[in-house]
Amino acid sequence: MDTLNKTQWLTRTGALIAALVVWQMMVGSMTGGNQLIVGSGVNLILAIAVMTDGLWSGAAVGMLSPVFARFLGIGPFWVIVPVIAIGNLAFVILWHVIGNMKVGSKPLYSYALAAACAAFVKYLILFLGVSYVAIPLFLDIPEAQANTISAIFGSMQLVTAAIGGAIACVVLPFLRNAMDNKV
User: Fold this and answer.
1) How far is Cα 62 from Cα 45, in angstroms, rounded to an integer?
2) How far is Cα 159 from Cα 34, in angstroms, rounded to an integer?
3) Among 168, 155, 173, 175, which Cα is nearest to 45's?
4) 71 CB-near residues (< 8 Å, 6+ apart)
5) Please, are residues 74 and 22 in contact by the beta-carbon 8 Å criterion?
6) How far apart are CA 44 and CA 161, in angstroms?
7) Residue 60 CB partners (closer than 8 Å, separation 6+)
């Protein structure tokens, strides 16, 4: 990769990280932290990062976003941050692998398959990681609070990842076409 391409990659990746953090802060504050809206947007940005700028960009955005969110006071306990980062990384890897495959005659087919698989795997990692690892091993909190946190990282994660992925299926063909045409 030449210097110009490295600079463009770094700039776009930084912009996507910033967009993700701003989305979490602004939309989170405007919607009272509505998980459906905020989480769907986060997953959309992750899919855009990996499918427009590659695996390393998506991985950087996915791994750094929960860290920045926690530093800004909009993320969960520190012990949950690595679980989110791993869930995001799995989401990004599956989008990269499946979203770039030839499934059928149109990219939309591979995007739809990527969205479904990535959403399910991210949900499993977050739910199991938070409910069965982070909370019981690292957090000494009342059962009611533990149940609330488990619920936050439960089925709603599947829904938000699926919504973000579905929106990405619609947006990505236009973004990739624009990038290919340097518009």
Assistant:
1) 9
2) 13
3) 168
4) none
5) no
6) 8
7) 13, 17, 49
**Count: domains in the chain:** 1
Task: Summarize pLDDT for 32-79 with one digit per residue, the tens.
Answer: 889 999 999 999 999 999 999 999 999 999 999 999 889 888 888 999
Which residue in this structure is represented by tokens 């993320």? 75
Containing structural domain, residue 83: 3-180
> What is the C-alpha to C-alpha distance for residues 114 and 101, in angstroms, rounded to an integer?
9
What is the Cα–Cα distance from 66 to 122, expressed in whole angstroms? 14
Burial degree of 3 (CB within 10 A; 0-12, 13-18, 19+): exposed
Rounded to an integer, what distance in angstroms lies between the CA atom of residue 78 and that of residue 115?
Answer: 28
For the ranges 65-69, 101-105, 145-149, 153-157, which has the lowest average pLDDT? Answer: 101-105
DSSP alpha helix (H) spans, 54-106: 55-71, 81-99
- Answer for the pair 24, 35: CB distance below 8 angstroms, yes or no: no
Q: What is the token pair recorded at 25?
A: 């802060």
